[in-house]
Amino acid sequence: MDGDRRWDRAVGPLQFIPTTWAVYGADGDGDGKVDPHDIDDAALAAGRYLCRAGGDLSGSRGWSEAVLTYNRSGPYARKVSRIAGRYAEAT
């Protein structure tokens, strides 16, 4: 996907590893293509990945589990939570 035959590097705006994309990739904009470089496709795939990882995302425990599956770092999870909170307030 990134043109490198030796290493599996993350690609696209949401940085999918090709093997993960093969499982969760999706056509988010209905154009008939499943492309990790397309933000609509990548966003839908990320949602599928996070929901599978965290189970019930309606509460903080499931949400945290999902985010920590993406990157197993407490500071990262807290940063994502702060940014998500600011985004929710702005919309």
Tags for this model:
91 residues, mainly alpha, 2 domains, 4 helices, 56% helix, 0% strand, MltB-like, EF_Hand_1_Ca_BS
Question: How would you describe the overall organization of this protein?
Answer:
- Residues 10-54 form the Transglycosylase SLT domain.
- Pfam families: SLT_2.
- This is Lytic transglycosylase domain-containing protein.
- By secondary structure, this protein is mostly helical.
- The protein has two domains: 1-54, no CATH class; 56-91, no CATH class.
- The chain is built from four helices and no strands.
- α2 crosses α3.
- The protein is globular.
- The N and C termini lie far apart (34 Å).
Query: How many discrete structural domains?
Result: 2
Tally of separate helices: 4
Shape: globular
Low-confidence stretches: none
How much of the polypeptide forms β-strand, as a percent range? under 5%
Overall pLDDT: 89
- Helix amount, in percent? 55-70%
- Report Rg: 14 Å
What is the terminal separation in angstroms? 34 Å
Strand tally: 0
Alpha-beta content class:
mainly alpha
InterPro entries: EF_Hand_1_Ca_BS (IPR018247), Lysozyme-like_dom_sf (IPR023346), MltB-like (IPR043426), SLT_2 (IPR031304)
Protein name: Lytic transglycosylase domain-containing protein
Domain Transglycosylase SLT: 10-54
Organism: Aeromicrobium wangtongii
